[in-house]
Write a structure and sequence with these properties.
248 residues, mainly alpha, MetI-like fold, 9 helices, disordered C terminus
Length: 248
Amino acid sequence: MILRTYEFDWTVVSSNFPRLLQGLEMTLIIAVIVIVLSMILAVPVALLRMSNIEVIRWVAQGYIEIFRCTPLLVQLFWVYYAMPTLTGITIPGEISAVIALTLNLTAFMAEAYRSGFQAVPIEQIEAGKMLRLTSWQRTRYIVIPQALRQQLPVIMSLDISLFKDTALVSTIAVADLMFTANKIASESYRALEILTTAALIYFVIAFPVSLILSKIERNMMNGDLRGGGRKKKSIAAQMVPGTKVQVA
């Protein structure tokens, strides 16, 4: 049996790199819009999830569980193909991608927020009442800032996952990085070089953010340990070689 030796041709990457950058631009635009919208919309969803009114609480929880327990690809297809059947309005691929990704990320973000909200010491909320702050003022000035700080590693982790998940929008013909890479690969018959380059582009953007996430987790954990806690290092805190969590 004769083994065929593959001959790399990286000129196909250099000649098509501007097209890949155009696809990357679309990916980043979608990711930024979705992250911003989700971080805003997740606040009321998390508050509704904690409502004392049972009907409201169950509706919010139902929304969260639907989008957490179904595949994102199915959600994309449903918004792009099924929603126009219900509304009679054709939705462009880019808008469909933003809607589906926002609904999905908001569900995960809302649970992260809820966890942070519930971790705020009740004494601080009672102190806000003593200062005659309204419920909204207590939420805005006491609960939300502390919850965001505490849940920042989780929020950033969700954002990194969202950035990678944007590759799925290529399935509904959105000209993102993955769609562009697939198109160039089919035109040039050089899938190895093009798809490898696309993977490296995703990595170059996501990896530095993951390092920042690791540093934030280490800093927060060092602060907890100096306060007398005995917590173990998280997986993210161990991902950078040569770094240690200081124990007071």
